[in-house]
# Entry
Amino acid sequence: MDGWFCFKINDTILLSFLKNRRYTLQPRIILASQSPRRQELFKLVVRSHGIKDFIIQAAEIDEKRIEAEILANRDGDFQDAVKILVEELAARKARVVQKINPRALVVGADTIVVLDDQILGKPGDEMAAFNMIKQLAGNTHQVLTGVSIRYRDQEERFVTTSTIKFYQWDHQMQREVADYVASGKAMDKAGAYGIQEEAGLWVKWIKGDYNNIVGLPIAKLNKRLGKMLTQIANQ
# Structure
């Protein structure tokens, strides 16, 4: 009989791979995010490491205050400041959850949509969502996701950037955007759209990681998480 068996022991999960008789003690894993899209993507990552279960625990941080502080004190250009911001937001989310769960491995993530020198957050209402998508039409914008992986005093941080161009605004797109906004799908997303939904119809091209645009760069995260789990196993 081959396969992984998981046994919960306090704050750890004991993974036993019977085929090669290898035993590894791995920490409980927590994703510090309420995003259902991010949760589904994260599930693919942890399963690739033989882990079936992880915990969802949202982190409460003052994102607006952190954004104001970092952008006000920036020395370089706007894009560099946004990279620092999205990485810091992810790190603070992970740190908050780690304080409550000091023996767990915590992954925090945050995604920001940028058009020129403007951050496009979640829309406040349907009109704001409609105008935000209209603003993106015909233009190139960036989606940046910061990720922080924390275990005790160890941390891995990185930022992934993808570039997207939407088609020009026309009557068809106007109708589709109106329907999309009316469905409510735009309201919980930075930039007012989810590329995996009907909004994918407006994308002319993308450069970079598609999953990063959805909310989590799983290929890079998979490598970094594997590296940290190996380090933990060898401690």
Observations:
- The longest strand covers residues 154-166.
- The helical segments are 36-48, 63-72, 78-100, 126-136, 171-182, 210-214, 218-233.
- The chain has one domain: 4-233.
